[in-house]
Amino acid sequence: MSGFTTIDHGEARRLIEAGALTILDVRTPAEYDRLGHIPGAWLIPVDLVASAPAVLPNDAKPVLVYCEHGVRSVAASRLLAAAGIGPILNLAGGLAPWAGPREFGPGAVRGPSTWLIDNADLLPRGGQVLDIACGRGRHALLLASAGFDVHAIDRNPEAIAFVRDTAAKLGWVINAEVVDLETDPPPAIATEFDAVLVFNYLHRPIAPAIRDALKPGGRIFYETFTIHQAERGHPTNPAFLLKDGELPELMAPCAILRSREGEFDGRFVASIVAERLVS
Q: Which parts of the chain register pLDDT below 70?
Protein backbone atom coordinates (compact mmCIF):
# COMPACT_ATOMS: atom_id res chain seq x y z
CA MET A 1 0.00 0.00 0.00
CA SER A 2 1.52 3.32 -1.10
CA GLY A 3 -0.09 5.53 1.57
CA PHE A 4 -0.78 8.29 -0.98
CA THR A 5 -3.22 8.90 -3.82
CA THR A 6 -2.31 9.93 -7.36
CA ILE A 7 -4.76 12.41 -8.87
CA ASP A 8 -5.18 13.85 -12.36
CA HIS A 9 -4.79 17.49 -13.32
CA GLY A 10 -8.48 18.18 -13.43
CA GLU A 11 -9.03 17.09 -9.85
CA ALA A 12 -5.91 18.97 -8.74
CA ARG A 13 -7.18 22.19 -10.33
CA ARG A 14 -10.57 21.84 -8.64
CA LEU A 15 -8.96 21.38 -5.23
CA ILE A 16 -6.56 24.28 -5.78
CA GLU A 17 -9.38 26.59 -6.82
CA ALA A 18 -11.26 25.60 -3.65
CA GLY A 19 -8.22 26.54 -1.54
CA ALA A 20 -8.25 23.06 -0.05
CA LEU A 21 -4.58 22.13 -0.42
CA THR A 22 -1.03 22.77 0.65
CA ILE A 23 1.03 22.55 -2.55
CA LEU A 24 4.56 21.14 -2.45
CA ASP A 25 7.02 21.49 -5.36
CA VAL A 26 9.89 18.99 -5.03
CA ARG A 27 11.91 20.13 -8.06
CA THR A 28 15.12 22.11 -7.99
CA PRO A 29 15.09 25.88 -7.34
CA ALA A 30 16.12 26.43 -10.97
CA GLU A 31 13.12 24.44 -12.24
CA TYR A 32 10.80 26.27 -9.86
CA ASP A 33 12.09 29.61 -11.14
CA ARG A 34 12.58 29.06 -14.88
CA LEU A 35 9.95 26.44 -15.73
CA GLY A 36 7.30 28.03 -13.57
CA HIS A 37 5.35 26.69 -10.61
CA ILE A 38 1.82 26.43 -9.33
CA PRO A 39 1.00 29.71 -7.54
CA GLY A 40 1.51 29.42 -3.82
CA ALA A 41 3.55 26.22 -4.01
CA TRP A 42 6.09 25.56 -1.30
CA LEU A 43 9.57 24.68 -2.58
CA ILE A 44 11.36 21.75 -0.92
CA PRO A 45 13.57 19.86 -3.40
CA VAL A 46 13.23 16.09 -3.26
CA ASP A 47 16.76 15.65 -1.90
CA LEU A 48 15.73 17.77 1.12
CA VAL A 49 12.22 16.42 1.55
CA ALA A 50 13.17 14.54 4.72
CA SER A 51 12.85 17.91 6.46
CA ALA A 52 9.33 18.49 5.13
CA PRO A 53 7.42 16.72 7.93
CA ALA A 54 8.85 19.28 10.36
CA VAL A 55 7.86 22.38 8.39
CA LEU A 56 4.65 21.60 6.51
CA PRO A 57 1.54 23.20 8.04
CA ASN A 58 -0.11 21.09 10.70
CA ASP A 59 -3.62 21.99 9.54
CA ALA A 60 -5.00 18.66 8.26
CA LYS A 61 -5.16 19.97 4.67
CA PRO A 62 -4.15 17.46 1.99
CA VAL A 63 -0.68 18.05 0.53
CA LEU A 64 -0.41 18.04 -3.26
CA VAL A 65 3.08 16.94 -4.29
CA TYR A 66 4.45 17.50 -7.79
CA CYS A 67 7.68 17.45 -9.76
CA GLU A 68 8.27 17.97 -13.49
CA HIS A 69 7.38 14.52 -14.87
CA GLY A 70 5.77 12.65 -11.97
CA VAL A 71 8.79 10.58 -10.92
CA ARG A 72 10.44 12.46 -8.04
CA SER A 73 7.05 13.28 -6.57
CA VAL A 74 6.33 9.58 -6.05
CA ALA A 75 9.42 9.18 -3.87
CA ALA A 76 8.55 12.34 -1.92
CA SER A 77 4.92 11.27 -1.50
CA ARG A 78 5.97 7.86 -0.23
CA LEU A 79 8.25 9.39 2.42
CA LEU A 80 5.65 11.92 3.59
CA ALA A 81 2.97 9.27 3.84
CA ALA A 82 5.29 6.99 5.83
CA ALA A 83 6.01 9.90 8.18
CA GLY A 84 2.31 10.22 8.94
CA ILE A 85 1.78 13.43 6.98
CA GLY A 86 -1.37 13.52 4.98
CA PRO A 87 -3.50 12.99 3.17
CA ILE A 88 -0.85 13.05 0.42
CA LEU A 89 -1.88 13.61 -3.20
CA ASN A 90 0.60 12.97 -6.00
CA LEU A 91 0.10 14.92 -9.25
CA ALA A 92 0.00 12.44 -12.13
CA GLY A 93 2.47 13.24 -14.90
CA GLY A 94 4.03 16.16 -13.07
CA LEU A 95 3.93 19.82 -14.04
CA ALA A 96 5.18 19.48 -17.62
CA PRO A 97 1.66 19.04 -19.09
CA TRP A 98 0.03 21.43 -16.60
CA ALA A 99 -2.52 23.75 -18.25
CA GLY A 100 -3.53 25.57 -15.07
CA PRO A 101 -2.15 28.81 -13.61
CA ARG A 102 1.63 29.04 -13.53
CA GLU A 103 3.96 31.63 -12.01
CA PHE A 104 7.63 32.28 -12.70
CA GLY A 105 10.35 33.53 -10.41
CA PRO A 106 12.52 32.28 -7.56
CA GLY A 107 11.26 30.77 -4.34
CA ALA A 108 12.85 30.24 -0.96
CA VAL A 109 13.46 26.63 0.05
CA ARG A 110 11.15 26.08 3.01
CA GLY A 111 12.96 23.18 4.71
CA PRO A 112 16.49 23.27 6.12
CA SER A 113 18.64 26.36 6.43
CA THR A 114 20.46 27.25 3.25
CA TRP A 115 23.56 27.83 5.41
CA LEU A 116 23.63 24.16 6.39
CA ILE A 117 23.01 22.96 2.84
CA ASP A 118 25.53 25.32 1.25
CA ASN A 119 28.19 24.12 3.72
CA ALA A 120 27.31 20.44 3.80
CA ASP A 121 30.75 19.65 2.40
CA LEU A 122 32.12 20.51 5.86
CA LEU A 123 29.93 18.01 7.67
CA PRO A 124 31.75 14.93 8.94
CA ARG A 125 31.26 11.77 6.94
CA GLY A 126 28.89 9.99 9.28
CA GLY A 127 29.45 10.39 12.99
CA GLN A 128 27.39 11.87 15.79
CA VAL A 129 25.52 15.16 15.47
CA LEU A 130 23.91 17.26 18.21
CA ASP A 131 20.99 19.48 17.14
CA ILE A 132 20.46 22.14 19.84
CA ALA A 133 17.01 23.76 20.11
CA CYS A 134 15.92 21.43 17.34
CA GLY A 135 12.24 22.42 17.23
CA ARG A 136 10.25 19.90 15.18
CA GLY A 137 13.46 18.54 13.70
CA ARG A 138 13.90 19.99 10.22
CA HIS A 139 17.67 19.48 10.46
CA ALA A 140 17.64 16.42 12.72
CA LEU A 141 15.36 14.53 10.33
CA LEU A 142 17.38 15.53 7.28
CA LEU A 143 20.70 14.38 8.74
CA ALA A 144 19.19 11.20 10.16
CA SER A 145 17.94 10.37 6.66
CA ALA A 146 21.54 10.76 5.45
CA GLY A 147 22.81 8.19 7.97
CA PHE A 148 24.05 10.43 10.79
CA ASP A 149 23.55 9.38 14.40
CA VAL A 150 21.55 12.38 15.62
CA HIS A 151 20.95 13.61 19.17
CA ALA A 152 18.28 16.33 19.24
CA ILE A 153 17.33 18.50 22.23
CA ASP A 154 14.65 21.12 22.80
CA ARG A 155 12.65 22.47 25.74
CA ASN A 156 9.30 21.81 24.02
CA PRO A 157 7.93 18.33 24.88
CA GLU A 158 5.49 18.36 21.97
CA ALA A 159 8.25 19.11 19.48
CA ILE A 160 10.46 16.35 20.89
CA ALA A 161 7.56 13.89 20.80
CA PHE A 162 7.03 14.77 17.13
CA VAL A 163 10.71 14.20 16.31
CA ARG A 164 10.76 10.84 18.11
CA ASP A 165 7.52 9.67 16.51
CA THR A 166 8.47 10.75 12.99
CA ALA A 167 11.94 9.22 13.17
CA ALA A 168 10.49 5.94 14.46
CA LYS A 169 7.97 5.78 11.62
CA LEU A 170 10.75 6.30 9.07
CA GLY A 171 13.25 3.96 10.73
CA TRP A 172 15.85 6.66 11.35
CA VAL A 173 18.18 7.03 14.35
CA ILE A 174 17.41 10.11 16.45
CA ASN A 175 17.87 10.28 20.21
CA ALA A 176 15.52 13.13 21.06
CA GLU A 177 15.11 14.46 24.59
CA VAL A 178 13.52 17.38 26.40
CA VAL A 179 16.20 19.73 27.79
CA ASP A 180 15.58 23.24 29.13
CA LEU A 181 18.68 25.11 28.03
CA GLU A 182 17.87 28.26 29.99
CA THR A 183 18.04 27.06 33.58
CA ASP A 184 20.34 28.69 36.12
CA PRO A 185 22.90 27.19 36.27
CA PRO A 186 22.80 25.99 32.65
CA PRO A 187 22.19 22.25 32.16
CA ALA A 188 24.92 19.80 31.30
CA ILE A 189 25.08 19.02 27.58
CA ALA A 190 26.43 15.76 26.23
CA THR A 191 29.90 15.92 24.69
CA GLU A 192 32.12 14.29 22.08
CA PHE A 193 30.04 15.14 19.01
CA ASP A 194 31.47 15.33 15.51
CA ALA A 195 29.14 18.21 14.66
CA VAL A 196 26.82 20.55 16.55
CA LEU A 197 23.96 22.47 14.93
CA VAL A 198 22.40 25.65 16.34
CA PHE A 199 19.87 27.52 14.21
CA ASN A 200 17.59 30.42 15.15
CA TYR A 201 18.54 30.19 18.83
CA LEU A 202 20.63 32.33 21.14
CA HIS A 203 21.21 31.96 24.87
CA ARG A 204 24.63 33.35 25.64
CA PRO A 205 25.23 31.53 28.96
CA ILE A 206 25.41 28.16 27.19
CA ALA A 207 28.02 29.21 24.62
CA PRO A 208 30.83 27.44 26.53
CA ALA A 209 28.77 24.24 26.73
CA ILE A 210 28.11 24.40 22.99
CA ARG A 211 31.84 24.63 22.27
CA ASP A 212 32.60 21.86 24.75
CA ALA A 213 30.06 19.53 23.15
CA LEU A 214 32.42 19.12 20.19
CA LYS A 215 35.17 16.57 19.87
CA PRO A 216 38.57 18.07 19.06
CA GLY A 217 38.34 18.67 15.33
CA GLY A 218 34.53 18.67 15.49
CA ARG A 219 32.57 21.45 13.79
CA ILE A 220 29.73 23.72 14.78
CA PHE A 221 27.20 25.05 12.29
CA TYR A 222 25.59 28.10 13.85
CA GLU A 223 23.18 30.67 12.42
CA THR A 224 20.83 33.07 14.15
CA PHE A 225 19.40 36.57 14.01
CA THR A 226 21.30 39.81 14.45
CA ILE A 227 20.08 43.07 15.99
CA HIS A 228 19.07 44.32 12.56
CA GLN A 229 16.31 41.69 12.39
CA ALA A 230 14.35 43.76 14.93
CA GLU A 231 13.67 46.17 12.07
CA ARG A 232 11.59 43.39 10.51
CA GLY A 233 9.49 42.94 13.64
CA HIS A 234 10.53 39.50 14.96
CA PRO A 235 12.39 38.75 17.12
CA THR A 236 12.92 42.07 18.87
CA ASN A 237 14.29 41.10 22.29
CA PRO A 238 18.02 41.99 22.40
CA ALA A 239 18.65 38.85 24.46
CA PHE A 240 17.86 36.81 21.34
CA LEU A 241 19.74 38.99 18.83
CA LEU A 242 23.45 38.98 18.06
CA LYS A 243 25.42 42.18 18.05
CA ASP A 244 27.51 42.96 14.99
CA GLY A 245 30.49 40.59 14.87
CA GLU A 246 29.46 38.78 18.06
CA LEU A 247 28.98 35.19 16.86
CA PRO A 248 32.67 34.39 16.15
CA GLU A 249 33.51 35.86 19.57
CA LEU A 250 30.97 33.60 21.29
CA MET A 251 32.51 30.54 19.68
CA ALA A 252 36.14 31.51 20.35
CA PRO A 253 38.67 29.91 20.48
CA CYS A 254 37.15 27.70 17.78
CA ALA A 255 38.67 28.34 14.36
CA ILE A 256 36.25 30.00 11.93
CA LEU A 257 36.17 28.06 8.67
CA ARG A 258 33.38 30.03 6.96
CA SER A 259 31.23 32.95 7.98
CA ARG A 260 28.80 35.56 6.77
CA GLU A 261 26.74 38.35 8.28
CA GLY A 262 24.00 40.47 6.76
CA GLU A 263 20.67 39.98 4.99
CA PHE A 264 20.16 36.53 3.50
CA ASP A 265 16.90 34.86 2.44
CA GLY A 266 15.04 37.93 3.67
CA ARG A 267 16.44 37.79 7.21
CA PHE A 268 19.30 39.51 9.03
CA VAL A 269 21.55 36.76 10.35
CA ALA A 270 25.09 35.85 11.28
CA SER A 271 26.33 32.40 10.28
CA ILE A 272 29.51 30.45 10.93
CA VAL A 273 31.10 27.05 10.57
CA ALA A 274 33.75 26.74 13.25
CA GLU A 275 36.10 23.94 14.26
CA ARG A 276 37.23 23.01 17.74
CA LEU A 277 40.99 23.05 17.82
CA VAL A 278 42.91 19.87 18.51
CA SER A 279 44.93 20.47 21.67
A: 1-2
Q: Would 102 be classed as within a structural domain? A: no
We report the CATH number of the domain holding residue 43 as 3.40.250.10
89-130 confidence digits (pLDDT tens): 999 999 999 999 999 999 989 999 999 999 999 999 888 999
Query: How many C-beta atoms surround the C-beta of residue 15 within 10 A?
Result: 17
Query: pLDDT tens digit string along 33-47?
Result: 999 999 999 999 999
Q: Are residues 63 and 130 in the same domain?
A: no
CA distances from residue 239 to 17, 201, 216, 222, 243 in whole angstroms, order as listed: 44, 10, 29, 17, 10
In the chain, how many domains are there? 2
Q: pTM, whole model, 2 decimals?
A: 0.94
For the chain, the first-to-last Cα distance in angstroms comes to 54
**What is the C-alpha separation between 48 and 206, in angstroms, rounded?**
30
Structural domain including 37 reads 5-91
Judged on CB neighbours under 10 Å (0-12, 13-18, 19+), 144 is buried
In the chain, what are the helix, strand and coil shares in percent, each to the nearest 5?
Answer: 30, 25, 40
Contacts of 252 (CB under 8 A, 6+ apart): none
Domain shared by 125 and 70, yes or no: no
Do residues 45 and 109 lie in contact, with contact meaning Cβ atoms separated by under 8 Å? yes
Looking at the fold, whether 130 and 216 belong to one and the same domain comes out as yes
In a domain? residue 43: yes
Contact 216, 228 (CB under 8 A): no
